[in-house]
Amino acid sequence: MKPKFLIGGGMILAAVFYLIFSATTASAERFMTVDEMLAETPEIVGDSLRITGAVIGDTIQYDPDTLTLTFEIAHAPADFKEIEEQGGLAKVLYDAVHDPTRARVKVIYIGVKPDLLRTEAQAIMTGTLDENGVFHATELLLKCPTRYEQALPEQTTQP
Q1: Which class would CATH give 29-155?
Q2: Given phi > 0 = left and psi -120 to 50 = alpha, else beta, which region is 106?
Q3: Which of 126, 134, 122, 68 is nearest to 92 (CA)?
Q4: Which residues make Cβ contacts (< 8 Å) with residue 80, sequence separation at least 6?
Q5: Model pTM?
Q6: Ranges of each domain in the chain
Q7: C-alpha dist (Å) from residue 114 to 62, 71, 110
Q8: Mean pLDDT across the stretch 8-33?
Q9: How confident is the model at residue 145, as a pLDDT?
């Protein structure tokens, strides 16, 4: 083989590896709980994150004219084993919302208010944290344990 073909092939291969690496790191998101996110602030300000927490119902505010939704979430564990050890998802979310000592984060989301947004819903959001400690969500997913009462009734009883 001629050296220029080897060099050209090596450059093409290097370019492909660079494109794969840069696309992977640019779209990478870290999944964190509220406590984990606050522990790493300010290093993660502006990074793309996915966080989870329990919605605190009395903080929900929605402006239908601007489609601006604001609410707070409280720290709740994300590990399935830990959730089961603490009595199930409904109990974990209940405890998170009703414990004033838990870490909380304000969330701002621009979009239509989801039907499942209520107190003790589990929020899973993608977005960024700003320098003031406010999480700006670009994607909002909600899990409401009351929707699963028939499937797992032992997990939905409140203390």
Answers
A1: mainly beta
A2: beta
A3: 122
A4: none
A5: 0.75
A6: 29-155
A7: 11, 12, 11
A8: 79
A9: 66
